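I am still getting used to backbone structure tokens and would like to learn alongside you. Would you supply a protein for us yourself, any chain you care to pick? Start from the sequence, derive the backbone structure tokens from it, and show both lines together. Go ahead whenever you are ready, and we will take it from there.
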Amino acid sequence: MKNLFYCKLILAISINFLILGCYAQKTISKNTEPNIILIMADDLGYGDVGFNGNKNVITPSLDKMSKEGITFTNFYAAAPLCSPTRASVLTGRSPFRQGIFAAHTGGMRPAEKTIAEVLKKEGYKTGFFGKWHLGWIEPDKVESRGMYSPPWHHGYDETFATKSAVPTWDPTKTPKGWTSFGAKDDGSWGGSIYVQNGKPVTTNLEGDDSRIIMDRAIPFIEESISKETPFFATIWFHTPHEPVVAGPEYLAKYPKLSEGKKHLYGAITAMDEQIGRLNQFLKDKNIEENTIIFFCSDNGPSDPLAKKGIASAGPFRGHKHQMWEGGLRVPSLISWPGHIKEGVASNLQTSTNDYFPTILDLLNIKPNKKIPIDGVSLKPLINGGSVIADNPLAFGYQRLYKNTELYAFVSGQYKICIPEVGKEMMLFDLKNDPGETHNLASEKPELLKTMMAELEKVKTSWKASREGQDYRW
């Protein structure tokens, strides 16, 4: 009897351990949906990262992600400047559909559906960190342009944001020698401030701005992990937007370069260091293979820095605020360890419009077919394929300043564009002339006419969307 009792006891304990073990395993694997991180640099030129061939800049973290993931050599920002591109990232729609024609000229409309809103409904914890630039973030702030439209109105649970640019080192102080926007005589910063969950921030704002941003993003991710909740984190750095300043330890990494390049490359290296910090954190938490990271820049390099030869669009002509390739084509990659074939270099024409449909497709979420989406899903490419649907790309930039109204349209190897103020519509063969040195408008008039007609169809569709066809607002 005694032996029988002990046998039953051992059996009961074994069953309980088995049940607990199964439950624990279920708990550990509860978060099967991939975590998603969108990282964006600000004014990072195509030629200012190591993985695009720059031998001087130190970007080991991005270079490693490039070697282990997909690098896009033909990736476009939706516009040659910040706010419009940011709107496209979150919605998959051209900024011209949303009435965001340039920086500081509006804000994201409440009816626009963002990735954050969609994923929040799917049970994701959502967080935004860095430069918002899609509307004011202080409700009582009244300015000449724009409107109040903070990230927490667009699906984000946790936020740490500025309205627009701040110095990339000591973001509450005017950099020495800086006399443009935000400069104050007393040495404080008169531009954007950091606001966390609706309240101004006063602590941990010294030193490298990329580190300041990551100091808020990582705790958000850590909390999501502890609650076994999938997360969507949007991390939009200010680097290397002007005023671009690097701290002493980063300047010291570039002793042989000019002062301007020391600061530019130093700030980029500091940002890269924080991206590496994020990757190591994900690895330490054992969620690296369950987290997909998208990285890009919002447009080409800054006008003044490019003109001085400090920042670079690599082999491409032009810079920010222009429809030349240098203003639109930007560094981009996707990293997803354990899921993506390593070392893929894709020359497919892709854009910031593609993020929204790609993320929905990865999660098997059906988009609203009544709302026009300008991007296409990159899921086939992520899954190892090499072909996605041909998707012509259209771009616009419009301001009253200097009567700016620029457009570009890329279809296959050909591109038409009004590249800058004062130019006529031009035609280029990007396959054979990526530097846009030979205008084919007079040599191929029929092709020019056909592509201009296609662009007009797109512009008509954009106008219908922003004037109320897609939603009531």
Confidence is low (pLDDT under 50) at residues 1-30.
